[in-house]
Design a protein that fits this description.
The protein is built from three helices and 34 strands. With about 500 residues, it is mainly beta. The strands form eight sheets. Strands 2, 29, 30, 31, 32 and 33 form a six-stranded antiparallel sheet that branches.
Length: about 500
């Protein structure tokens, strides 16, 4: 490497690049790993392999670094590999960054014009025997779930015509079908959305193309028994701004948040756009139907949650000033005024939810989220650079029927938490009965723990803690896959 990384907040402290690939066999364990756990916890974090081409960068623009925690017979083995995307390989060959600003091909080195810009850094999910590294500006990248070797970019054998693919597909718990989409599907800053249903063997069963009311971020989605919901954030793209080297997303406080609703097998003529007052939507908990109405549970903040994408005047609120709650959005398909109504489900400012996937599309009861415990808030000023997950330092167990926070667990006064995954105790277990698995940032020790909590009482603390001898950058998202999914024939 010919030059160092910048000492900017987004590339210093906890989020400083690791640039590491490796294995740790048989992690040190405190407590007892449940022997009924047999599978792997996968997660992916942005981790740039070279200093930014433009001198500095945002957290979202790092190369995808995938980790696997393989759990079996009471032991945990660790593996970490980069997603070897075309972008990663070309820059590795050049020994420098060739790609410029986030989602802006007009800032790239001319030598990579037309090459896929994906980093595969936002989520990892199992489907059709492969682990898919996802980033919503590009097609997915397949990886071997056991070795983490990269298989390559995929358009599902030519079936997916969209240029982009969501980082948050949803899977029907009965059929195993993957519900997915791409926005800006025809190119940068276009309002086009391509919606797909793909069966467990990788065959496209349904396709529909339609346009959003404006070109904006659609980061997540939701699935009910009969419908799909697309939450459209008031973060708007503009092609001329991008061509002039500007930011890809710009917050617009004058726009409503939108909820696009389409029947599962609907066409463009069936899409309806419901509106609610300006808000920043977080990640989907779940969605379901009751007596003809749709209920969509999602965190909503009162202002822009991405301070690195300010408004046209350059203003963005400090993350610590945001107010919000986990909301239940009511959508009545029969309403002619296309207004959605949102009520507080639980007043906690929380996000990065995990639910029992067997109960997707139903009136579920158990949700687990990352939240803030003010009584044990770490001294973030002492860290010199704000971690990406900011003040999230606790796990919450929320009753989705009453909105009550049933239990919380906080790992300590100098710790933060990353997104959890839920694993059921077995397929016959009641809803929410199982384990919560996640990483904990030990800021004072500059390293990380993998914790396993029993969901019967997360407040009791971990039943097992796997100690890592180094820090793990904050991931964006992750998932659990059973060992059976690894060996399923293709």
């Amino acid at each position: 490497m010919t030059k160092p990384f910048p000492r900017s907040p987004q590339m210093s402290g906890w989020e400083a690049p690791l640039r590491f690939e490796g294995d740790l066999y048989d992690l040190e364990i405190e407590g007892e790993v449940p022997t009924d756990l047999d599978g792997a916890f996968f997660r992916v974090a942005p981790d740039p392999q070279y200093p930014p081409r433009l001198g500095d960068d945002i957290f979202f623009n790092g190369d995808g670094s995938v980790s696997s925690f393989r759990v079996k017979d009471g032991h945990i083995d660790f593996k970490m590999r980069y997603v070897h995307t075309p972008r990663y390989l070309r820059e590795r060959e050049a020994r420098r960054s060739l790609f410029g600003a986030y989602r802006n091909p007009y800032t790239d080195d001319p030598s990579v014009a037309g090459l896929s810009r994906t980093t595969g850094n936002t989520n990892v999910v199992m489907h059709d025997g492969l682990l898919w590294a996802l980033k919503e500006d590009s097609l997915p990248v397949g990886m071997d779930p056991e070795t983490l070797e990269t298989v390559g970019l995929s358009d599902f054998a030519g079936q997916v015509k969209s240029r982009t693919f969501t980082a948050h597909p949803k899977f029907d718990p009965e059929s195993g079908d993957m519900f997915c989409f791409g926005y800006a599907a025809r190119g940068e800053a276009t309002p086009d959305v391509a919606y797909y249903v793909i069966d467990p063997s990788g065959k496209v069963k349904h396709e529909a193309w339609f346009t959003s009311p404006y070109p904006a971020m659609i980061h997540d989605m939701a699935l009910t028994e009969n419908y799909v919901i697309f939450p459209v954030s008031p973060l708007v793209s503009d092609l001329e701004r991008i061509k002039n080297g500007g930011i890809y997303w710009q917050w617009d406080s004058g726009l409503d948040v939108l909820f696009g609703v389409i029947p599962r097998l609907g066409g463009p003529e069936d899409v309806r756009w419901f509106r609610a007052p300006n808000a920043f939507p977080g990640h989907t908990l779940n969605a379901f139907e009751d007596r003809g109405k749709i209920y969509y549970d999602v965190p909503l903040a009162d202002d822009n949650g991405f301070h690195f994408f300010p408004d046209a005047n350059g203003y963005a609120p400090h993350p610590a000033s945001l107010k919000g709650a986990v909301m239940r959005v009511e959508i009545d398909p029969k309403r002619s005024d296309l207004r959605a109504r949102a009520e507080v489900l639980t007043p906690a400012l929380a996000d990065f939810p995990a639910v029992d996937d067997r109960y997707l599309t139903t009136a579920y009861r158990h949700a687990f989220l990352t939240g803030a415990d003010p009584s044990a808030m770490p001294n973030l000023a002492a860290l010199k650079a704000m971690p990406f997950n900011g003040p999230f330092n606790a796990f919450l167990h929320v009753d989705a029927h009453s909105g009550d926070v049933k239990k919380t667990w906080t790992p300590g006064p100098m710790a933060g938490v990353q997104e959890p995954v839920f694993v059921s105790r077995d397929q016959s277990a009641p809803e929410g009965d199982g384990y919560l698995i996640a990483l904990v940032n030990r800021y004072d020790e500059i390293r990380s723990d993998l914790v396993i909590l029993d969901t019967a009482d997360i407040a009791a603390g971990p039943v097992a803690t796997a100690r890592l001898p180094f820090r793990m950058k904050n991931a964006l998202h992750g998932s659990w896959a059973s060992a059976e999914e690894f060996t399923r024939s293709r």
